[in-house]
Specification:
This protein is mainly alpha-helical. It contains six helices and four strands. A two-stranded antiparallel ribbon has the order 1-2. The protein has a two-stranded antiparallel ribbon with strand order 3-4. β3 and β4 form a beta hairpin. α5 packs across α6. The longest helix is centred in the middle third of the chain and has 34 residues.
């Protein structure tokens, strides 16, 4: 069931995570020193098999029922994940209103310009993963193609990344190393 959950939880693949075995809440300490405490939220699903059904239930049918339960739990976790992110972004004022225009390279550039971007040791950006609803895959592909093929947009993207790289370098230079 864990393997099935991992295939369904692709959106979480790059999100660092670890198990917490006890407690009632989680505390997040951000790099700027601010803290936030949140209660744990349960994601669960119930599976009921009647005695009559038990007599004829074979392994493939049982696995199908169990997979349906895994899907319900993953759906709950995913909704909570995006709700939590949305609330946090709203709280800090880091939102962009697309005003119904849909996904576009222009909107993407606004997003990249507004967020923090990390860079690797060679100065290459670690761009965030763009998560879109399956209905928006074609729009995301068009947006990427527009960003790659339009020299004006491509130049703006590079200018934003260069500015972000300088901000990152300044922060890295000012860091106090321990040890």
């Amino acid at each position: 069931m864990r393997a099935k959950a991992k295939t369904l939880e692709a959106v979480f693949a790059e999100v660092p995570h670890h198990r917490i075995f006890e407690g009632r809440e989680i505390r997040i300490t951000r790099t700027d020193g601010t803290e936030e405490t949140s209660p744990f939220v349960e994601a669960s699903s119930e599976l009921t098999i009647s005695f009559d059904e038990l007599e004829t239930l074979d392994l493939p049918s049982l696995l199908k029922k169990l997979e349906a339960n895994v899907e319900k739990v993953v759906e709950q976790k995913t909704k909570h994940f995006f709700q939590t992110i949305s609330e946090a972004v709203e709280r800090v004022g880091n939102t962009i209103d697309g005003k119904g225009q849909g996904l576009s390279a222009e909107l993407y550039l606004q997003v990249v310009d507004k967020i923090w971007i990390e860079f690797d040791a060679d100065g290459r950006p670690k761009l965030p993963t763009l998560v879109v609803h399956p209905d928006q895959r074609d729009a995301a592909a068009r947006m990427h193609e527009e960003l790659v093929s339009n020299p004006v947009l491509r130049r703006r993207f590079q200018e934003i990344l260069e500015r972000k790289r300088e901000i990152w370098r300044a922060r890295e230079t000012d860091r106090e190393l321990v040890g």
